[in-house]
């Protein structure tokens, strides 16, 4: 449509205007208009393909004209009652009492009925909530016993949560599913922090890049840009020092930034800054990264750019959220769960170490008797023992990059909700018995214009409907749904949608998100029950930190969660009152900084030798890789000399330490 319009505009002035045909057409139109006016017939709606926006003003300016004097929301047609025509169709199934009843028309009736049917397929009753909580607890417990279960229950080696007194300046990066954020965090030690950040959308082609290097090189470049922009002095001096320093102390300069790497994909964690990617989710698919240490992949690209940055900690965004919430929440109540409801969904909670009966490799602090566990609950019930499946859930799964996996996430999180709505709406549009986004008769549209949908509309394209519009639908409670209709135009290129179209869209969107919120309550409720703290009179509050655009921006998402929690056996109204769900603002950044701090504290004095050795090896590898890819090859002699100097340096340090 946009292209067509552009073409039109560029060609038009090139033609020489011919006045006569225009004059004839204008005269004919005037006569026709006068005739219609005298006969009081409705004007034919203009076929207005290039009209990309409507506004209140248009209807208001019409309303003073005698022909458009009726209020815009009163049905345009005054049909005589007939057996197949209903003047008062059933109101659409959402409780907005001030919305006037839809205009009369058999197809509008059919739209109302079809909307009710589609909405009912997303019903998720209190009994469903309870059945799901039981199954969730069962699958959680299975995950604590062995590997390879649907809820992975990955031990994170984090055995305590912060108390707000932590201090220092750290870097944090967050590879979510949609955005890459780079930030520096100054922890002030009094539960407050200062955060500076840059955010960039991850280019779609990098999500399915041929090699992981392409993605990680992009991430390292963003870190460089951030340092140059926000920490220029520090960056220049550190880079200079690093280039000239030949001693390990040079490398262990306090000006090397410790970086917490929030990586929100399933990882088998092997240490505080080491973890192998288990599988991609959220539409990513770069096969060569599977099984590799993602910290090493990032560090290699950081080193290639010679940045003064050490990847000190690998953090799952859920763990970061839990940490951040604990750091910032005041009072004696520490948080028990960090939950993400953004592109994807996942949660990390504090578990008693004795309940983790599967082997935990490596060393960890046993004194607290607790460990943070990353549930990877996006994969809850991949086997579909209980999860609801509409035809559109099945269609979405079939067209995803990972069919049969992340089945809970595919019903709950931002990346998928828009697509479920799109698939449902598309099926309704294809149904000839139903008038959705169709110009059956424009006189039934209170805006009195032609409804049409551009061939470039996101509704017609897989993954073309961003979940953000679902929030617009939910928050527009005006009688004419004008904000939503504007958004349908601007965002989805559905031009001049009728009130009934918007009502139907809103009802389907609400139903899909409501089911998602109630499923979210299943996960939160199960963890609250698992904590065993609901019945503990000592615990007045069970604090839960959440993050992600869906929970943050969708109106009343948390209220819908609470409503479902009340219905859970073992929680009820009293338990729900005890559960405090709060947004962990900037959770992933602050959380990653906190874990980088923990990692720094864990660095032992002798570690510098390993660091140095690793650093030299990385530099040599980077040089070799650079030579192989970018530059003419370096002489072997230079490499041998470089290597020998490195070995000599290690030997000298080792000798000194022995003495
Ligand atoms: P990330 O997962 O990369 O950390 P976010 O937490 O911002 O990023 O989540 C992005 C996801 O949230 C996208 O799938 C997007 O469609 C969805 N989203 C963004 N804004 C809204 C909104 N206002 N309402 C509902 N979903 C939203
Ligand atoms: Mg996130």
TrEMBL record:
The keyword Membrane applies. Its EC number is 2.7.1.2. It comes from Drechmeria coniospora. One of its GO terms (biological process) is intracellular glucose homeostasis. Residues 337-598 form the Hexokinase C-terminal domain. It comes from the Eukaryota. The chain crosses the membrane at residues 634-655. Residues 116-327 form the Hexokinase N-terminal domain. This is glucokinase. One of its GO terms (molecular function) is D-glucose binding. Keywords: ATP-binding, Glycolysis, Kinase, Membrane, Nucleotide-binding, Transferase, Transmembrane, Transmembrane helix.
């Amino acid at each position: 449509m946009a292209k067509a319009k552009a073409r039109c505009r560029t060609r038009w002035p090139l033609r020489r205007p011919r006045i006569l045909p225009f004059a004839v057409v204008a005269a004919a139109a005037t006569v026709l208009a006068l005739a219609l006016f005298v006969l009081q017939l409705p004007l034919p709606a203009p076929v207005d393909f290039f009209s990309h926006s409507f506004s209140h003003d248009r209807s208001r300016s019409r309303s003073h004209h005698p022909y458009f004097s009726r209020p815009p929301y009163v049905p345009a047609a005054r049909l005589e009652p007939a057996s197949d025509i209903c003047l008062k169709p059933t109101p659409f199934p959402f409780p907005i009492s001030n919305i006037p009843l839809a205009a009369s028309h058999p197809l509008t009736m059919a739209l109302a009925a079809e909307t009710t049917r589609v909405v009912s397929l997303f019903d998720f009753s209190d009994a469903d909530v309870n059945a799901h909580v039981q199954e969730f607890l069962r699958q959680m417990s299975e995950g604590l016993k062995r590997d390879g279960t649907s809820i992975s229950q990955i031990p994170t080696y984090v055995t305590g949560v912060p108390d707000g007194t932590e201090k220092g300046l750290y870097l944090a990066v967050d590879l979510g599913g949609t955005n890459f954020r780079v930030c520096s965090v100054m922890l002030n030690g009094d539960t407050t922090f200062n955060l500076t950040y840059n955010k960039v959308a991850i280019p779609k082609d990098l999500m399915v890049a041929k090699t992981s290097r392409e993605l990680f090189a992009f991430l390292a470049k963003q870190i460089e840009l951030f340092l140059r922009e926000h920490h220029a002095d520090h960056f220049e001096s550190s880079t200079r020092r690093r280039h000239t320093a030949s001693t390990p102390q040079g490398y262990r300069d306090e000006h090397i930034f410790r970086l917490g790497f929030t990586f929100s994909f399933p990882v088998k964690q092997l240490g505080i800054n080491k973890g192998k990617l288990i599988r991609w989710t959220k539409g990513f698919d770069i096969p060569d990264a599977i099984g590799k240490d993602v910290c090493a992949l990032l560090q290699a690209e950081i080193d290639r750019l010679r940045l003064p940055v050490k990847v000190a900690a690998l953090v799952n965004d859920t763990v970061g959220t839990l940490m951040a919430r604990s750091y910032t929440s005041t009072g004696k109540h520490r948080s028990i769960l960090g939950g993400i409801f953004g592109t994807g969904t996942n949660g990390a909670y504090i578990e008693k170490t004795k309940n983790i009966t599967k082997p935990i490799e490596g060393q960890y602090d046993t004194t607290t008797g607790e460990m943070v566990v990353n549930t990877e609950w996006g994969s809850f019930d991949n086997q579909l023992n209980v999860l609801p499946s509409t035809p559109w859930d099945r269609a979405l799964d079939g067209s995803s990059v990972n069919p049969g996996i992340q089945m809970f996430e595919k019903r709950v999180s931002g990346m998928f909700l828009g697509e479920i709505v799109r698939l449902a709406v598309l099926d309704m549009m294809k149904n000839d018995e139903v008038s959705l986004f169709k110009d059956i008769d424009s006189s039934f549209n209170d805006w009195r214009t032609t409804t049409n949908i551009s061939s470039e509309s996101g509704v017609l394209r897989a993954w073309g409907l961003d979940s953000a519009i679902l929030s617009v639908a939910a928050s527009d409670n005006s009688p004419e749904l004008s904000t939503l209709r504007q958004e349908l135009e601007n965002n989805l290129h559905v031009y001049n949608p009728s009130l009934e179209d918007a009502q139907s869209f809103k009802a389907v969107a609400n139903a899909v998100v409501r089911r998602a919120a109630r499923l979210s309550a299943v996960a939160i409720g199960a963890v609250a029950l698992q904590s065993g703290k609901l019945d503990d009179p000592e615990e007045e509050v069970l604090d839960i930190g959440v993050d992600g655009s869906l929970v943050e921006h969708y109106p009343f998402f948390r209220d819908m969660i609470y409503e479902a929690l009340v219905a859970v056996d073992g929680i009820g109204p009293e338990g729900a009152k005890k559960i405090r769900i709060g947004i962990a603002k900037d959770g992933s950044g602050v959380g990653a900084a906190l874990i980088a701090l923990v990692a720094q504290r864990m660095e032992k004095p002798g570690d510098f030798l390993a660091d140095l050795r690793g650093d030299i090896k990385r530099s040599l590898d980077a040089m070799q890789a650079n030579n192989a890819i970018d530059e003419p090859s370096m002489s072997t002699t230079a490499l041998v000399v470089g290597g020998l100097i490195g070995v000599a340096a290690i030997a000298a340090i080792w000798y000194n330490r022995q003495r």
